[in-house]
Design goal:
The chain is an alpha/beta fold. The protein has helices at 38-45, 65-74, 78-81, 116-122, 158-169, 186-194, 201-211, 213-223, 251-255, 257-261, 279-296, 304-310, 340-344, 393-400, and strands at residues 8-9, 14-15, 18-24, 51-58, 87-90, 95-98, 127-130, 146-148, 179-184, 230-235, 241-242, 248-250, 263-267, 272-276, 299-302, 328-331, 336-338, 355-356, 368-373, 388-389. The chain folds into two domains: 8-76 and 113-242 and 363-426, 3-Layer(aba) Sandwich (Alkaline Phosphatase, subunit A), CATH 3.40.720; 245-352, 2-Layer Sandwich (Gyrase A, domain 2), CATH 3.30.1360. 28% of the residues lie in helices and 19% in strands. The strands form six sheets. Strands 8-7-9-3-10-19-4-20 form an eight-stranded mixed β-sheet, with helices on both faces. A four-stranded antiparallel β-sheet has the order 13-14-16-15. A two-stranded antiparallel sheet has the order 1-2. A hairpin with a 4-residue loop joins β5 (87-90) and β6. α5 (158-169) runs parallel beside α8 (213-223) and α6 runs antiparallel to α7. The longest helix has 18 residues, at 279-296. One of its GO terms (molecular function) is ribonucleoside triphosphate phosphatase activity.
């Protein structure tokens, strides 16, 4: 795909086609109600050629924040882009990736693939990143032209994030980015704390704040006479489900104190990936977990090859040896592995987080959100796009921006997936 770059203007200034991709962490499609997200609900319900809504979007497995944001940004599965969980051990590097610690996650060597902001730059355009989960630089040395690193959401209310996006939009034409990505963690953080209770006052308030983002952006873009120049894509990375004390699995009881004490590493929460010094200990742990599975029937025990198949990863299991162990336990949706020591750390005796994700990505509770609006979309026989994997977002952005195949990277998206949804001047 690809076409010559158009010389566009808003009546007073030169413009290039622009895409704003904004992720709302943990936004479930089921939150889309007239009460909690009235603006987005109205947009999703009307038959408007400029609006494309999907009732849900499949996250990649595991349904966690960092693997899925890098899948959205590269069009690759976690087995291809390398971020296989929010936390994992790379035995080849003898280093641990931990998502909230830049010292253990920003090294470009962790991250594979060509992110959207680099693909856009390859075609001579500018890009901007407002806190999107991922590194500030790739192994090739590419960085967004404008980069705002992650800071506490308490310091970044939605009004400030909107103002920051518009500051980039208002740059002179030779500096203005044509691809902007942004991120808001508020819904995810609050539902981790309170569970999936959207009637909780703080969650309701956060949802209404999120709901103002798209209309506020559209109004600001209209004031700049750029309605026919800017497309906006709203996504989330995964859904959320509530946890409870009656759905706990005590790993220290399942393994017994002696074997539990010999665990070398445990990663991939809320799943359990265990590594031991000795093969005998791993075999013993597998047997103990398998016995417990037959008893409780609320989790599965898998080896590396079985995990690759369960997660629908296309990479060869052997190629994942360094970052994916050979003993996994995957809890059913809403169940949590814990220990008696961990439970004693909760002052009220109630397991936390009260809401969680990371479970089966095809389950209803883990589904992600998708809604797009802008001039590149066209009238269709049906206004909705059926549920699709989030790896398709990569080509959607690059199709709109007419980035040709020579500059976009190989990815796990489906060629021509978006042809029926985009206007003829947005694709070949």
């Amino acid at each position: 795909m690809g076409r010559p770059r158009e010389a566009l203007n808003n009546g007073t200034h030169l413009w290039e086609k622009t895409v704003i991709l904004f992720s709302i962490d943990g936004l479930k499609p089921s939150y889309l109600t007239p009460e909690h997200l009235p603006n987005l609900h109205r947009l999703s319900s009307i038959d408007d050629a400029r609006t494309l809504f999907g009732p849900s979007m499949w996250p990649m497995s595991p349904s966690l924040t960092f693997p899925n944001h890098w899948s959205l940004m590269t069009g690759l599965e976690p087995s291809s882009h390398g971020i296989v969980a929010n936390d994992f051990l790379d035995v080849g590097k003898n280093k641990t990736f931990y998502y909230t610690d830049p010292a253990r996650s920003w090294d470009a060597g962790w991250w594979k693939g060509v992110p959207l902001w680099e693909a856009v730059q390859r075609q001579g355009r500018r890009s901007a990143n407002l806190m999107w989960p991922g590194p500030p630089k790739t192994t090739r040395g590419a960085s967004p032209d404008f980069f705002q690193e992650y800071e506490s959401p308490r310091d970044w209310p939605m009004e400030r994030r909107l103002a920051h996006l518009l500051r980039w939009i208002d740059l002179p034409s030779d500096q203005r980015p044509s691809f902007i990505c942004g991120y808001a963690p508020d819904i995810d953080s609050l539902t981790h704390s309170h569970g999936v209770n959207i009637s909780h006052p703080s969650i309701t308030e956060a949802l209404l704040s999120i709901d103002e983002l798209l209309p506020s952006l559209l109004s600001a873009i209209a004031l700049r006479n750029a309605t026919d120049l800017v497309d906006i894509i709203l996504v989330s990375d995964h859904g959320m489900t509530s946890t409870s004390n009656d759905r706990l699995l005590f790993l220290d009881d399942i393994l017994g104190p002696a074997l539990f004490s010999r665990i070398k590493s445990r990663h991939a929460w809320p799943n359990v990936e265990l590594r031991f010094e000795s093969a005998d200990d791993e075999d013993e742990a597998r047997a103990a977990l398998s016995r417990a599975r037959k008893k409780y029937r609320t989790f599965d025990v898998l080896d590396r090859s079985q995990l690759v198949e369960r997660f629908n990863w296309s990479a060869d299991a052997g190629s994942l040896h360094d970052r994916v162990g050979n003993l996994w336990a995957l809890p059913d949706v809403g169940y949590s592995f814990t220990t008696h020591e961990e439970m004693r750390s909760f002052e009220d005796g109630v397991y936390s987080p009260r809401g969680n994700h990371g479970y089966d990505s095809r389950s209803a509770d883990m589904q992600a959100f998708f809604l797009a609006h802008g001039p590149s979309f066209r009238k269709r026989p049906t206004p909705q796009v059926p549920t699709f994997p989030n790896t398709e977002i990569y080509n959607l952005v690059l199709d709109i921006l007419a980035v040709d195949n020579a500059h976009r990277a190989p990815n796990n998206g489906t060629p021509h997936f978006w042809d029926n949804y985009l206007r003829a001047n947005a694709i070949d």
